[in-house]
Predict the 3D structure of the following.
Amino acid sequence: MEELKTILTEAFGESSDSEGEEQRQLLHTHCAENRVNGKALSGSVYGESHSWERISEINGLWLCKDFLSPDQQSNLLSSIQLEGWFAEPSSNQAMRFGDLPGWAVELSSSIHEVILFGNYVAELENCGKSKEACIFPQDLLWREPLFDQLIVNMYRPGEGICPHVDLMRFEDGIAIVSLESSCVMHFSQVENETCRAQDPPQRVPVLLTPGCLILMWGEARYLWKHEINRGPGFQICEGQEIDQKRRMSATLRKLCSTD
Ligand SMILES: O=C(O)CCC(=O)C(=O)O
Ligand SMILES: [Fe+2]
């Protein structure tokens, strides 16, 4: 584990007490547990823990359930609230392009770190050879900036989002951080000759719990639609209907360059 600490220190510098409390609360990639081909991988440098789960039915779909601690979730929600975007009862979505608010830049850095460490642990354990075993491809991870577009969605009970593939004006590699109410996000294949032959079409449910991070790239981003239907009867997990309260999400993407 000393080796991991050296690598992280080289990449991010020494973690010191002089860092602001706020910054430390969002920068937290110090341990990762990685499940690739059913094998759990873990390592710890500064004591915090993160686990990655590959959604096996869909290439390029990864879930980190414990991305944000309860305190970090509260801080993120406070930062969003301070923006005042949802003061009007009619508003339920805010978008920012280019220079993102400081808290969203911090969030991007945390996402970068948690992926970097997860990818590293996977490679260390010799599971990172195939592209599918990679949490997020290196070319996407090291682009600058990692993300330059933010959408914050606020869903009232019963509200959701229709099946869609994110617009092609955004590059590959999308991250969503989920806050407040848990929900099931369903993935269904974009119709093409192969999947039309399937009867019924495959639908993959993914449970998003508060503080989780989901990554979509490659097939997950381009060949699968995602949706959240919070209408009655759709939010079922292990036979139980999930209690529907307010839900917030922060989606980070990168605009395609125009040249
Ligand atoms: O709220 C979510 O978790 C998903 C948001 C989404 O898919 C989008 O804004 O494109
Ligand atoms: Fe989307």
Notes: Confidence is low (pLDDT under 50) at residues 4-47. The helical segments are 2-12, 21-26, 70-83, 102-124, 138-141, 193-196, 219-222. The first strand starts at residue 31 and ends at 36.
